[in-house]
TrEMBL record:
UniProt xrefs under Gene3D superfamilies: 3.30.450.180, lambda repressor-like DNA-binding domains
Annotated InterPro entries: Cro/C1-type_HTH, Lambda_DNA-bd_dom_sf, MLTR_LBD
Domain named MmyB-like transcription regulator ligand binding: residues: 80-235
Protein name as annotated: Transcriptional regulator
One Pfam match: MLTR_LBD
Classification via CDD domains: HTH_XRE
GO molecular function: DNA binding
Superkingdom to which the source organism belongs: Bacteria
Length: 238
C-alpha cells in the first residue's frame, strides 16, 4: 500500500470497520471511545510503524502509557543516575530529562562537546539550532529530521507539557528546522542504536563514527542515560 498519499476518511473508516462519521469525529478531536482493540485497528488502517504506534497509544492514554509518574521510586535515584553519567569512562555519556536538558555528563562528553558545560545546556536546542552542530554532525539535515521526529513524538505523547512547547517554538523559529518540520510528519520514540558520524578535529583528525545507546531507568522513564560508543575501526573505537 502507498503510505505517501493522504488516506480519505471513508477508506480509513472502511479499513477499521467503523462509520465514516465516527472516524471524522476522531480526526476533528471529538471524544470517541478508544479501546485497545480500536487503537490496534486504527494502527493497522493507517499503516503505522512501531514509533507511530507508540505515539498514538501515548496520546490516546494521556501520556506515554504505562510509565511511572515522575518522582516515583527512590528519592535519590536521579543523584545515582548523575553519578553514573559522570563516571570516568573512555566514552562520552550524559543524562537528560524529558525536554533534553543536560543534567549531568562525564569528562569525555565535555571534551568532545564543550557546550555541555554551559548553563541550561540542552541537547535538542544545540543539535538543531547551532552552527557548530551543523558542522560537527555529518549529513546534518538527515539527523536533524530524526531529532525533530523525537521532538514530535514527545509533543504527541505529552501535549500539555509547557516546556516541550517552548522548546518546539525555539526550534521552529529557525527557518531551516521549520522547513524540515513541515516536510515530514515522522515520529521517533528513541535513537537507541543509532549510528552517525562526527567531525571533531579537537578530538581526532579523522571522522568518528559512534553508536548511541539509550537507557531508560525503570522508575524514572522521563530521564535518558546515553552512552556514545565509537564503532570498531573508528578513532577512539574499541
Amino acid at each position: 500500500m502507498n503510505r505517501g498519499r493522504p488516506l480519505p476518511q471513508k477508506e480509513v473508516a472502511d479499513r477499521m470497520c467503523v462509520s465514516e462519521r465516527w472516524y471524522r469525529n476522531l480526526e476533528t478531536g471529538l471524544r470517541v471511545p478508544l479501546s485497545a482493540e480500536v487503537l490496534e485497528r486504527l494502527s493497522q488502517a493507517l499503516l503505522l510503524g512501531p514509533d507511530e504506534r507508540m505515539a498514538l497509544y501515548g496520546y490516546a492514554l494521556g501520556g506515554a502509557g504505562g510509565q511511572p509518574d515522575e518522582g516515583e521510586g527512590p528519592s535519590d535515584f536521579q543523584d545515582e543516575l548523575a553519578e553514573l553519567a559522570s563516571a570516568q569512562t573512555d566514552f562520552p555519556s550524559y543524562l537528560t530529562d524529558r525536554v533534553w536538558n543536560v543534567l549531568d555528563h562525564n569528562a569525555a562528553m565535555a571534551h568532545w562537546f564543550p557546550w555541555v558545560r554551559e548553563p541550561a545546556a540542552n541537547l535538542m536546542r544545540w543539535a538543531l539550532t547551532t552552527a557548530t552542530a551543523r558542522e560537527q554532525i555529518v549529513d546534518w539535515p538527515r539527523h536533524a529530521g530524526q531529532y525533530l521526529a523525537l521532538l514530535r513524538f514527545a509533543l504527541v505523547t505529552r501535549p500539555d507539557d509547557e516546556n516541550l512547547a517552548a522548546l518546539r517554538d525555539t526550534v521552529l523559529d529557525d527557518p531551516v528546522c521549520r522547513g524540515l518540520w513541515d516536510r515530514s510528519p515522522k515520529v521517533l520514540a528513541y535513537r537507541h542504536g543509532h549510528r552517525y558520524e562526527l567531525r571533531l578535529p579537537h578530538v581526532s583528525p579523522e571522522t568518528i563514527t559512534v553508536t548511541s545507546q539509550v537507557l531508560l531507568p525503570a522508575y524514572r522513564q522521563e530521564l535518558r542515560y546515553v552512552l556514545l560508543l565509537p564503532t570498531e575501526g573508528s578513532p577512539h573505537g574499541p
